[in-house]
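User: I'm preparing a small set of examples for a lab meeting where we compare how different chains pack in three dimensions. I only have the primary sequence for this one, and I'd like the structure in token form so I can line it up with the others. Please keep the answer compact; I'll paste it straight into my notes.
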Amino acid sequence: QVELVQSGGGSVHAGGSLSLSCAASGGITKMNAMDWYRRAPGKARELVGAISTDGSEVFVDSVKGRFTFARDNAKNTVYLQMDSLKPEDTAVYFCNADITDSRGLRNSNYWGQGSQVTVSS
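Assistant: Understood. Below is the structure token output for the 121-residue chain.
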């Protein structure tokens, strides 16, 4: 079965950097796109950005210029580099993938387990 496994994150002071990765595995024919969301305590889930396998990508204004995507299509892995972090970036970050599996079925209901990002002042 398809699964997404996240790694990275952690705790830094404001202005520091952290990175996250999201690796998809298990009977994947194609990873069409990956979205990243975050959820801070007491707040709704928020879209951070999205990248398609063809390289097109978008970020929300609050992180634009500070967050960057990289990807390794051969490994079905997307990396989120987070620079110049601010306390308001503190949240649990989740990856979400649009995947066509080995049976040719496509859906976007695949989620990573979440990674904590904590930015202190």
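A couple of notes for your slides: The chain has a mean pLDDT of 96. Residues 42 and 91 are 10 Å apart (CA to CA).

User: Perfect, thanks.
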